[in-house]
Amino acid sequence: MAEPMTFDQTVRDIVRRHGGLPTRLLQILRDVQDHLTWLPSETLDQVAEELGLSPDKVRGVAEFYSFLYTSPRGSYDILFSDNITDRMLGNRELLHYLCERFGIGIGETRADGVVSIGTTSCTGMCDQGPAALVNGYTLTRLDRPRLDRIVELVNSQIPLDRWPREFFEVTSNIRRADTLLGRHFADGAALRAALDRGPEVMLEELSKSGLRGQGGAGYKSAAKWMACRNAPGGVKYVVCNADEGEPGTFKDRVLMQDFADLVFEGMTLCGRVIGARQGFVYLRGEYRYLLKALRDTLQRRREVGLLGEAILGNPSFDFDIDIHLGAGAYVCGEESALIESLEGKHGVPRIRPPFPTTHGYLNQPTVVNNVETFAAAAKIAVEGGDWFASRGTAESKGTKLLSLSGDCERPGIYEYPFGVTVQQVLEDCGARDAQGIQMAGPAGHTISAKQFGRRICFEDLATGGSFMVFDQSRDILDGIRNFTQFFVHESCGFCTPCRVGTSLMRDLVTKVHTGHGTRYDLEEMRKLGRIMQVGCHCGLGQTAPNPVLDSLDEFPEAYERRLRSTAYEPAFDLNAALEEARQLTGRRDPGAYLNEQDLLLGAMP
Amino acid sequence: MIEPRLKVATCSLAGCFGCHMSLLDLDERLFDLAERVELDRSPLTDIKELGECDIGLIEGGVCNAENVHVLMEFRARCKVLIAIGACALNGGIPAMRNQFALKDCLEESYLRGIGLVDPQIPNDPEIPLLLDQVHPVHEVVKIDYFLPGCPPSADTIWTFVSQLLSGQAVALSYTQIHYD
Amino acid sequence: MSERPHFTLDGRRVPFQDGQTLMTAALDAGVYIPHLCFNPEFTPHGSCRVCLVEVNGRVQAACTTPAAAGLIVQSEIEELREIRRGILQMLFVEGNHVCPACEKSGACQLQAVAYYVGMLAPHYTHFYPRRPVDASHPEAVLDFNRCILCELCVRASRDVDGKNIFAVQGRGIQARLVVNTPSGQLGATPFSLHDKAAQVCPTGTILIKHRGYETPIGQRLYDRKPISVVGDVAQVSESRGGRRHD
Hints:
The structure holds 3 protein chains of 3 kinds.
Chain A: H1 9-17, H2 25-36, H3 41-51, H4 55-64, E1 76-81, H5 84-88, H6 91-102, E2 115-120, E3 132-134, E4 137-139, H7 144-155, E5 174-176, H8 179-182, H9 189-209, H10 221-230, E6 237-242, H11 251-258, H12 260-274, E7 278-283, H13 291-303, E8 320-325, H14 335-342, E9 366-370, H15 371-383, H16 385-389, E10 399-406, E11 412-417, H17 422-429, E12 434-439, E13 445-448, E14 466-471, H18 476-490, H19 496-513, H20 519-535, H21 539-543, H22 546-554, H23 556-560, H24 574-585, H25 596-603
Parallel strand pairs in A: 1-2, 5-11, 6-7, 6-9, 7-8, 10-14
Antiparallel strand pairs in A: 1-3, 3-4, 10-11, 12-13, 12-14
Helix pairs in contact in A: 1-2, 3-4, 6-7, 9-10, 9-12, 9-15, 11-12, 12-15, 18-19, 19-20, 20-22
Chain B: E1 6-12, H1 18-24, H2 29-36, E2 37-39, E3 53-59, E4 62-64, H3 65-77, E5 78-84, H4 86-90, H5 102-111, E6 130-135, E7 145-147, H6 154-165
Parallel strand pairs in B: 1-2, 1-3, 3-5, 5-7
Antiparallel strand pairs in B: 4-6
Chain C: E1 6-9, E2 12-15, H1 22-28, E3 52-55, E4 58-61, E5 72-74, H2 78-94, H3 109-116, E6 133-134, E7 140-143, H4 152-160, E8 166-169, E9 176-179, E10 206-208, H5 227-230
Parallel strand pairs in C: 1-5
Antiparallel strand pairs in C: 1-2, 3-4, 3-5, 6-7, 7-10, 8-9
């Protein structure tokens, strides 16, 4: 077959470096984009040919992930994190300022191809925002002086590795440590325990501990490991879900930055228990800055016999870990979508059952657990199940990491035994004037002060870890509208009620938020929300209406004070819909407006 | 005692009057209808001013400023508002122009068309100003009943109107509901 | 011989064999559950969500839920009819479905299912997306305005025809059907009217040229009887107004 017209040796080298494996497609495309700044059609075709994939597969993947570009972007591509917490810290004003300085609009690339600016979903820096990504690397604590300096650096085309280090500094902000973060852990201790006492005992301890999935779903970890261990199939896998994409969550980032050994040890332990030799960390693309340090840690563990072949000198204990980097798709936090992505495909959730414990990565038995779950498992292996179960509540054993952000004096990571009240957390983080909180991300719970006595645990308020505080000065609806836009952006588009429903919901909330809604629209939101909750294919769509439905109950006044007194209002701006015709005809006569008010507005300079 | 007749108004916005033709297809049933309703503003009466009505029938979607005014007036003056026909329900054929920018539509018609003399986009204040897109009526006002069809058949209209006038729940048979 | 296992669908016993889903078992028993992306000849997809049923109190897609003995399944209940109606309405406002201007009208599964669930009007605000029409192929035309992303043509072309002509690309509301050629034109592919892909579209997205409006109104596939009686257009023979070549 003829070589593609723009055959590129570097692209070929990248594909080879990844072993020519189709499962590495997403990683290959990331590397190719680093080389070319975007992914031209001919390049995608070349990648397809080298991997023996059909061109549409490769293009489908390239189009699915937000951080992959199929049209040209700047050599410096700056994406502002656009979570509500970034907005509360003033990111929009900074975004517009930077656009102005570069002379481009949001989503545009400057004519010279040097710089492009856009927005992206929460980058997990809520305690040190406003944040952004430049070529995928995290920038924190943005302010005007920093942006001015960035303008100079970009205009002089200074490479990122010569930018001031402090621009990229990510601090851990651990404010409260309990058993997971507070107690010393000796590397290898969990693996020694596993070798000394055997996988069955380890499973018993895990079972006694009552550990549940810390990503928020709360499935019993011991049952999951057991099911995978017992599943037929010679090749099994361990997958660590480090794709925390819930806006407001950043606890896995801190674990991966400061406690990577603990996490890797938990994964290796799991490999030993279920009989797997290969593990994967699926690291969200926004945490690219961690990649090098994590790979170094893996290498160090190999060198000291905690990873790789014959771990701790035991010839029957082989296990290694590979890190896959995501590329901006919240839906990949759903375990079956994550597996699809790991296999190099676009991340559409699978039909379940079968579950990953029997049909996971490459259809083999697979345990997928959250970062925090693996860390806790490693501790349990050393300290015992009873020790872990002595903290927490009847149904929620142990501790939980919370990511605190928003209107509080001390944002950061707080580790509590399960069962702590919302009120206690608010007091500890210095949130004096909280109007409400958003817990477990937009898909979770939006609650007002009357519910601050509730407890954080699976029996009451289950959470993956996000905890955003809104004080009395905030407009709750700003946040809700931001969340509905988040779901529009993150819907994978597979099923009807999510693909279409998320847009309909965003438009209804926007209508009310901009003062054009009526009580009828609130009823519409409830009906639409119900269809999405029961009708969607996966958890993303099923929970997407939660912020709206919760806030309608918890903060009715946030909606009602904006409602028109009329029974019904048009779905679109009638006056604006006439403007194009006014311009084309040059008409400004009274007949060119629907009413006097529009006419008066139109006559204003 | 003779019951007072219900007042009914009808109009055609961005439509083709096909739904009104279908109404006339009621043929001899029009006599029965006339005993029970009195027509107010309608293309069939040529009454220009809309009075207070019990029922309003809207054919056609909303494509210009005049459509908006008429539709809003109907909503304000009719107790029950009924959208009738494909165009009123989803924009129909006129909404196929939504595939193009209004600028392109007008330039194609008035500037680039074949055989034009002194081409210009009409700007006379007498001509209703176009909306950038054609919309179904429910995107502008609250609609109480929807009657699909292009047009709905006379039978369908008769079933619907009879049920409505006698206060029954509207229930159409399978063959009476179609979108074309 | 022991009794065949069965589940209950709207109070009726539906027997099933190992490996069947609620949908295929119901179909074999002659009970209709409305659906669009499901076609018995292909692996179920579960994307359109029209076949939602309540299984022991939980709403699930009938086409992807394995049949199991003793399940209590509800389908024709008002709550589900309302949800299905809502999903149909979403499909209608997402694309541009101008039935009076579509040759498929009367033999369109999307339309027939909408009739079946009692949809009178699209209810939601229309998106009016701008989508192209591809008339580059000598025998067929692709009208993307009518695509509901069921991926049946994708599956048929890939799994049966071995041509892999169609794909869905993009994410979320940007997801769209594309043709796998550099030009994106159907005319540049080996697509043929004898392909399975030419016969599975539940809407008027893939239309055969030179033969429009052949059946008089009143005699079209779904003019007289509902889809629950007539069956899916892709499963009905051409002599009866369907697509299937017998």
